[in-house]
Design brief:
This protein is α/β, with parallel strands linked by helices. The chain has three domains: 1-95, no CATH class; 148-231 and 367-401, Ribonuclease H-like superfamily/Ribonuclease H (Nucleotidyltransferase, domain 5, 2-Layer Sandwich), CATH 3.30.420; 232-358. It has helices at residues 3-10, 100-110, 115-122, 126-145, 186-196, 198-202, 213-222, 232-251, 264-268, 282-294, 296-313, 317-331, 340-348, 350-354, 365-380, 387-397, 413-416; strands at residues 15-23, 27-34, 50-64, 67-79, 86-88, 94-95, 98-99, 151-160, 164-171, 176-182, 206-209, 227-230. The strands form three sheets. Strands 1, 2, 3, 4 and 5 form a five-stranded mixed β-sheet that branches.
């Protein structure tokens, strides 16, 4: 078979086909060599024409028609005539023991499949695939962290629920995950800020987190100039906990022997009572009015929750304070002591909660979406024990979709990696 025909089939830059060593129904082995006549010396940059010796290296390539493809690369060891150094020639189409296009395929498959399944599918080693994923993930992380970050998001997600956690850091301006730091402590987040340096931290203006005292300590220590904002979703969950406590107390009261342990009507309306007032239909309102007539305490608690929601429905900081004053009037009546923990949380995090209005109303929505992808990854991989491997694969899958994808080229493996 002619060398020009095989060159078209391989599509490898600066490589020339020498011969087909083996062509069976299960495997294709092809001998190749570099088409560059005078490789340049890495020290002096001079072109070298003297070959000291030749070494054959096996390089795996993409499968062809279901057959494993192995390239036998006759790699020359050159001797520089100017400086006398001996060096091995390089090829941009190869990345270690695999071709660049196979490396891209391995990493792309690792974003949707377990590492073991990827290794079995492409007939390579598990450690080889994992090292490729970690190397490419490091390139992506460095590229993402080099970009400006004005709004920073931080939240936790679990490697093993209730046992091991990682802190996820996301750039809200781009929606890309910057890091997944082991643990959810002050030292974990402070260590990330220290690693990025003072210049990078100085450009961060807003930090959005949940109600974690550890995160607040790290932000105060490293990002004292930034505005700390409490995520709206977590605040609403705190506020709703007061109404849930009242509902559980009401549905268990005045139960006679032989009756259900709880009021079915109150229990069945548990999700309806958590909805905002402006989202209720006429049927929903009539149903709630019937419950509130039978249980006046529920009405007071529901109205208190609606006033607390006014913190975020208000147009500015002053109107948010007015909504908080109306809630205080309802709480001071003494009818809803179950809101005691909610009031303590509001007092403790009042500055971070009200800062939402003066910082452009940021949200942790992007990081919650990233956490969902990470949980899917954890189930796909059947769990993780190594946080480094979890971070490497997590950084690759937690990226927003590209609206316009550029056509792929086969010039550089690094340029093909998704950011």
């Amino acid at each position: 078979m002619g060398s020009d025909v095989m060159r078209v089939r391989l599509h490898l830059r600066r490589m020339r086909v020498l011969e087909v060593v083996s062509d069976t129904p299960f495997e294709l082995v092809v001998g190749v060599e570099s088409s560059v006549r005078r490789p340049r010396c890495p020290d002096c940059g001079s072109g070298c024409s003297k070959t000291h010796d030749v070494r054959v290296k096996k390089v795996r390539d993409l499968e062809a028609s279901g057959r494993a493809v192995t390239l036998l690369w006759r790699r020359r060891r050159m001797a520089c005539g100017s400086c006398g150094r001996r060096f091995l020639e390089d090829c941009p189409a190869f990345e270690g023991p695999v071709t660049a296009r196979l490396a891209r395929r391995l990493v792309a498959d690792a974003m949707a499949m377990p590492i073991r399944a990827v290794a079995r599918r492409h007939r390579v080693g598990w450690h080889q695939v994992n090292e490729l994923v970690k190397a490419w993930s490091a390139l992506v992380a460095e590229r993402r962290r080099s970009r400006r970050c004005r709004v920073l998001l931080a939240d936790e997600t679990s490697i093993r629920k209730r046992h091991r956690y990682v802190t996820v850091v996301v750039n809200a301006d781009t929606g890309r995950t910057l890091a997944m730091v082991p643990h959810r402590s002050t030292a974990a987040l402070s260590g990330f800020f220290a690693q990025r340096g003072h210049k990078w931290c100085k450009q961060v203006k807003v930090v959005v987190t949940d109600g974690s005292p550890a995160y607040r300590s790290a932000i105060d220590a490293r990002l004292g100039h930034a505005k700390h904002v409490l995520d709206r979703f977590h605040v609403i969950r705190w506020l709703s906990a007061g109404l849930t406590a009242v509902r559980r107390d009401v549905q268990r009261q005045h139960r006679q022997p032989g009756e259900p342990a709880f009021d079915p009507g109150v229990f069945q309306a548990r999700f309806l009572m958590l909805r905002r007032q402006d989202t209720l239909t006429d049927t929903d309102r009539a149903r709630l009015d019937g419950l509130f007539d039978a249980h006046p305490k529920l009405r007071t608690a529901w109205e208190a929750l609606q006033e607390l929601r006014g913190l975020y429905e208000a147009q500015d900081h002053d109107k948010a304070l007015q909504a908080l004053d109306r809630f205080s009037d309802l709480y001071l009546t003494g009818q809803i002591p179950e809101f005691h923990d909610t009031v303590n949380a509001i007092i403790e995090w009042s500055d971070e909660t009200l800062a939402w209005h003066c910082t452009g109303r940021p949200s942790n929505g992007r990081i919650e979406g990233a956490n969902n992808l990470l949980q899917v990854l954890r189930r796909t991989a059947h769990g993780f024990t190594n946080p480094t491997n979890y971070q490497a694969r997590g950084l690759l899958i937690t990226r927003p979709p590209h609206r316009h994808r550029q056509p792929k080229s086969h010039t550089s493996a690094q340029g093909q990696f998704p950011d």
